[in-house]
Write a structure and sequence with these properties.
single chain, mainly alpha
Length: 157
């Protein structure tokens, strides 16, 4: 069965060794117990290898690459101003759309009004009992029943 105390003690030693590796520049600066643990623990050996490799890689990176140049702030501010002006121009283009839509609405309403009055059929006076205006959709029907009308013949031969 596992010995939980031993595992926890081992994890504490690994944690302390990794903290110590972060703060020392060389393995010679470690204590003798830490060096013994490092020799016995493969996880700590891998961690120390990773730490020292990353230090070597970062040492080769030039220090001036991390520092911004003297004109860095002005270039960034110029780029921000250019982007804001592009956005403002696109917003100005879209600001004209509501004005155009309002004008188009009034123009269409006026066109519909003119077209409806121009295309509406003219009313013609109708005789007597039918009413004054003939509807566009109603069929002309008289209210009286239709009767046959016989016209007299004047010259019958």
């Amino acid at each position: 069965m596992w010995n939980l105390r031993r595992m926890r003690k081992n994890q504490d030693e690994c944690s302390r060794l990794r903290d110590a590796l972060e703060n020392v520049a060389d393995l010679a600066a470690l204590s003798s117990t830490q060096r013994e643990h490092l020799a016995a623990c493969p996880a700590c050996q891998e961690a120390s290898s990773d730490i020292f490799t990353s230090r070597i890689v970062l040492r080769d990176v030039p220090a001036r690459a991390a520092l911004p140049g003297p004109w860095f702030a002005s270039r960034v501010m110029a780029a921000i101003a250019a982007r804001e002006s592009e956005l403002r121009q696109s917003l100005d283009a879209w600001a004209a759309v509501p004005r155009l839509a309002a004008r188009l609405t009034w123009l269409s309403a006026l066109a519909l009004l003119v077209a409806s009055t121009w295309l509406l059929p003219k009313s013609t006076p109708v005789s007597g009992n039918q009413g004054a205006v003939e509807s566009l959709f109603d069929s002309p029907q008289s209210s009286a029943p239709q009767e046959d009308v016989v016209l007299p013949l004047e010259n019958a031969r």
